[in-house]
Write a structure and sequence with these properties.
With 389 residues, the chain is α/β, with parallel strands linked by helices. The strands form 4 sheets. It has a 3-stranded mixed beta sheet with strand order 1-3-2, covered by helices on one side. The chain has 4 domains: 88 residues, membrane protein fhac (Ubiquitin-like (UB roll), Roll), CATH 3.10.20.310; 91 residues, Ubiquitin-like (UB roll) (Roll), CATH 3.10.20; 88 residues, membrane protein fhac (Ubiquitin-like (UB roll), Roll), CATH 3.10.20; 110 residues, Ubiquitin-like (UB roll) (Roll), CATH 3.10.20. The chain has 11 helices and 12 strands.
């Protein structure tokens, strides 16, 4: 008897507990709203009045509300058949002002530092990071903005730039944000060397860089060659690499780039350590695939290099374009020319694999803008014709 009574009580307990949890929500209350509206939030959350509430749904509701970026804190409580959503809104940006101080005084007005970013560029950054007026403000957004600024200034050689943000929140939970940028001077190149140069000329290689050690005093006053920027440095690296490849040094490598700033971050010393490798010559040139349209002899004559010449990657690229144009003139606008290289000792042979694809025909030639001259007169001057009728 006791076992039956215990079983009945346990069954009734689970029944009423299940019924209590299964009661559908009859009303959703948003508490703490200031800028956002209930109607808008009801469209966002994955839950509707009349549905049953659970812990899984609670997590989804919280996640959907945080994704809006409008709230800094969200708490959900169930009171009988009501779901209370307590919200703490992020402040709305009332203004975001940026003040740039280049640090150039009156005595330095002739050679004042150029502003790295214009007001328009800064405004575009604010829009991209959703920090413009009317957007919800979060510290994370501001931190991302400052990190981007710091990175951009450092890449342009402003290692001493200082970014000072200040935030004020008014009684209506609106944020006024101000960032002061003390740009400071760009770091200057004290020394610039390239080590490992054996066959080419170091001085010629250094001239491939727009930046470097200062020119003569008067000239450097106008050129600012000794002002470091990461962009121009990388461009110089690319130019030097291309110079070696076009001179047959296909194994050219940059072993290391050592750069060091002085304690005040006002001067930088740069040393690029390279390995030239051997100089390659051009071996045999062959053609394979659909060559009948042009003919092997005509293809060979179109190549600007001869066997035994120093291998020049740039000339090979130009020759591929020449071959492409030759096939295009025959109607094969989508020809695929694949240069397959093979090395033997210090020679690189090239086999051009040619695949023509389908021939292209002109369906219609439309002439517009001719108010006095008839179409037939203009068409006589065109060396190609269409197939429209």
């Amino acid at each position: 008897m006791n076992n039956k009574l215990r079983f009945l009580i346990t069954t009734l307990f689970f029944f009423f507990t299940t019924q209590s949890n299964a009661n559908p929500i009859e009303k959703i209350n948003f508490i703490g709203l200031n800028s956002a509206t209930e109607d808008a939030l009801l469209q966002i959350i994955p839950f509707r009045v009349g549905e049953e509430y659970s812990n899984t749904l609670s997590n989804k509701i919280i996640e959907s509300l945080f994704e809006t970026g409008l709230f800094s804190d969200i708490t959900l409580t169930k009171n009988q058949n009501n779901l209370n959503i307590q919200l703490e809104e992020n402040p709305i940006i009332k203004y975001f002002d940026i003040n740039i101080d280049s640090g150039s005084g009156f005595t330095n007005w002739l050679k004042s530092e150029k502003m790295l970013m214009t007001s328009k560029e800064l405004d575009e950054q604010l829009v991209y990071l959703e920090l413009s007026t009317g957007n919800p403000f979060t510290q994370r957004k501001l931190d991302d903005f400052l990190i981007n600024l710091e990175s951009k200034y450092a890449e342009s050689g402003y290692y001493n730039a200082i970014f000072t943000p200040s935030i004020s929140i008014d009684s209506q939970n609106r944020a006024g944000v101000k960032v002061t940028i003390q740009q400071g001077p760009r770091v200057k190149i004290e020394s610039f060397k390239i080590s490992g140069v054996e066959n080419l000329n170091e001085e010629s290689l250094l001239k491939l860089f727009k930046i470097g050690e200062a020119d003569m005093l008067l000239m450097n006053f106008f050129t600012n060659k000794d002002l470091f920027t990461e962009v121009e440095f990388r461009q110089g690296i690319d130019s030097m690499t291309n110079a070696y490849f076009d001179s047959g040094y296909l194994d050219f490598k940059i072993l290391s780039i050592d750069s060091s700033l002085d304690d005040k971050k006002e001067k930088i010393s740069i040393n690029i350590d390279i390995s030239e490798g051997i100089q390659y010559k051009l071996g045999s040139i062959t053609f394979e695939g659909e060559t009948e349209v042009i003919g092997i002899e005509s293809l060979e004559n179109a190549i600007s290099m001869n066997e035994g010449d120093v291998f020049n990657r740039n000339l090979i690229i130009k020759d591929i374009q020449t071959l492409t144009d030759m096939f295009a003139d025959k109607g094969y606008a989508f020809v695929n020319i694949n240069p397959v290289t093979s090395e033997f000792l210090d020679a690189v042979s090239i086999n051009f694999e040619i695949s023509l694809n389908k021939k292209v025909y002109i369906n219609r030639i439309t002439i517009s803008g001719n108010t006095r001259t008839q179409d037939e007169v203009v068409r006589r001057e065109i060396s190609i014709s269409d197939f429209s009728f």
